[in-house]
Structure formats: C-alpha cells, structure tokens
Amino acid sequence: MQKFDAIRPFYDSEVNEVFKKLLYHPMMKSLMDFSFPDDDDASWRGLLAKTHSIRDFQCNFIYQSVQTLLKKSSEGLTTSGFEKLEKGESYLFISNHRDILLDTTLLNASLFEYGLVMTASAIGDNLVKKSFLMNLAKLNRNFLVQRGLSPREMLQSSKTLSEYIGHLLTHECRSVWIAQREGRTKDGNDATNPGVLKMLAMGSDEDNIIDYFKKIKIVPVSISYEYDPTDALKMPQILAEANNEVYVKDANEDFMTILSGALGQKKHIHIHIGDVLTDVIDEIGTENDSTNKQIQAIAQAIDDSILSNYRLWPTNYIAYDVLNNSDTYASLYTEDQKMLFERRMEKRIDKENPVALQSFLNMYANPVVNSIKYRDAVKN
Q1: Whether 183 contacts 247, CB under 8 Å
Q2: What is the mean pLDDT of the chain?
Q3: Which pLDDT score is estimated for 7?
Q4: Collapsing DSSP states into helix, strand and coil, what is residue 268?
Q5: Based on the number of CB atoms within 10 Å of its own CB, is 150 exposed (0-12), middle (13-18) or buried (19 or more)?
Q6: 8-state DSSP, 328
Q7: Which helix (H) or strand (E) holds 168?
Q8: Of the candidates 222, 202, 221, 201, which has an alpha carbon nearest to the alpha carbon of residue 213?
C-alpha cells in the first residue's frame, strides 16, 4: 500500500520507534504534564516507551488528555445516538466542523467509551507543518488531506485520498471521520459541500455510487459547543474577506488556534450520532437517475440530519435575540447567561466595528436561523 504513504498514519510497527524519539521532546512533556499532573516524568516515559500501537496510545494517553481537558475547560460532554451503532462495524462519520482538534478527539473518546470502532480522521496537512504536530497527528490515526496543490495535483490527490478512505472502511474495517466541507465553519452555517461526496465517490469499487455510499455506511454527526473557544480568532479572516482583502495567516496561527480550541472555555458540548443513511440513500437512488442529483440529495440528507440534531445552547438563543433586537427566545436563557455572553463578546471583539459585531453574533445565531429554516421546510 505504498501509494498511501504520503498521507497515512503510522503503522503499529512504526509507532514505538517514534515514541522513543519523542520521549524528551519539550512539547511531549507539556502534553503529559497537562494530562498526568500527578505523575513524574519517569512514569509516563516508561509507559510510552513500551507503547507499540496507536490504540494503546489513544486509550492510555489521549483518552486521559481528553478527560483532563474537559474537566479544565468545559462543563461536560454529553452524547446521544451512539447506541444505534454496532460494535465491530466501521462507519463513515461526516460531521459539521467547529474545532481543528477537538471534534475528532471528542468523537473518538466517545466511541471508545461505547466500545465502538474508533476513527481514522482527516486533517489538512497545512495544520501539522511542525514536525512534532505531524508525528502526534499520525500517532493519533490522522491521515492527511493535501492542500495548496495545482488543479492537476489536486485531482490525483483527491483520487488517492478517496481510495485510502475506501480502503480503511471496506478492507481494514476502520471507521473514518471527515468534515462536511473544507475548513472549520466560521459563520455557524453548517452545509455539506457536494464536492466532498464527489471526492469520496472517486474511490468507489462499485458499478454505481449509490451502492458504494450504502456500503460505506454514512453517518452524519452533529457537534455543538456552548462557547466556541476560537470565536475571536476567526475574526481577522472574516474582517479581511468583508473588505475584499486576501487573508494571509500568521506563521503560528494554526498552532495557536489548536491550543486555544483545546484550552479555551467551551462550557457544554454535545455530540449527536445521526441515523446510518443506508435506507435514505437507497430511496435517493430509486428517485434520481442522475449522479449529480443523487449527490445533491445525499448532501441534503446529511444537512437535514446535522441541522435537526444540532444541540442549541442559551448562547445561540441570546445571540439571535441580540442580533434581531428581540426577546423571541428570552424564556430559554437567564439574564445572568445573557450578561456573561455580552461580557465575553466585549472582551473578545471590537463592538464598535459593525462587521465584527454582526459576524460574532452570526456565529452563534445562525444555528438557530438554520433550525427554523429546517423546521419550516419539513412543514411544507
């Protein structure tokens, strides 16, 4: 399987050698000091030196990191829908995307708790340019989505990526996580890019895409944070785009975003696992004979699941009411919650800048707007 070498995680046969190289890396020490504050260095180094598989690393180290992180930066993670999944089965989880690191890490921690197959997860190679982050990503079963390619290179890269995802799902019985579109949602609007589905179809070994999409068992995932710990960090790009300026990231911006997402306050977090779309996709195949129409319909089915199962928090309703100068949802939050939200907003953005103010509120309000649109569409 050498054709996947440029994008795949480490094989289990490779991980121990990598761990031995990272034992005294300062960033590994920082991660372990955070995750195991009561252990001395010799303790975790001894265990890490004897780790020979990604699963052992995830179960013995990353899972503990997640528990510490949740304790320090949230008021807890809740889940729903996991009971619908079968143990030992692989699934393609297609998710809305809020945080570079947490979305997949929290999903895997939950899958582990339910005794389900954990995922290999897509991550842009632009996010792991530092060698330590690249090693850590590959040790945590991330595979790379290559960015910044020419159109011809992008086509070949997409084909390799789709074949690798198909290989994981159908030959290795490994679940896969992929975002519903490139990049994190910056405006609170969660929508599936049909291009993602077209990319996945490139790896099909079936005569038609309907049979393939049924075989790989697509499961929509809705993840919501009461507070987005990176909300303010999204502002510079939003403001640049509002001014029709080309936005250029700082050298360490992605790394700082990863840190802020992990350590920043999130309050409550919820992950919902939607229904496996096999029956829905079967119906779509019966009703549509055009491949493009089938892909559009599957993208809509993913959107419908994500939007209908997205957990709305007081912050979402507060932002909607502030944005619309209304008290439509005042019964769903307290004055204290509203005051805390407004205080946070004042600390994180320039409220005198109308674009910044509206953009910040939109991040939190748009999930409510989209929920209303979804309900109206169902009624009609």
Answers
A1: no
A2: 94
A3: 97
A4: strand
A5: exposed
A6: T
A7: helix 151-170
A8: 201
**For residue 58, which amino acid is it?**
Q
Residue 98 — φ and ψ, nearest 5°? Answer: -110, -40
Average pLDDT over residues 314-343: 97
* Position with higher pLDDT, 183 vs 38: 38
- The three-class DSSP label of residue 111 is helix
Residue 142 has pLDDT above 80, yes or no: yes
Rounded (10°) CA dihedral 192, 195, 199, 200 = 30
Give the pLDDT of residue 376: 82
**Where are the extended beta strands (E) located within 166-245?**
175-179, 218-225
What structural domains and CATH numbers belong to the chain? 74-311 (3.40.1130.10), 315-379 (no CATH)
Name the DSSP letter for residue 229.
Answer: T
Other C-beta atoms closer than 10 Å to the C-beta of 197 total 20
Tokens for 297, please give them: 């319909």
Q: What is the largest CA-CA distance in the chain?
A: 63
Query: Is residue 276 within 8 Å of 218, Cβ to Cβ?
Result: yes
Helical segments of 288-353, H only: 291-308, 314-324, 335-348
Q: Each residue of 297-322: pLDDT tens digit?
A: 999 999 999 999 999 999 999 999 99
> Phi and psi dihedrals of 123, rounded to 5?
-145, 135
Residue 251 has pLDDT above 80, yes or no: no
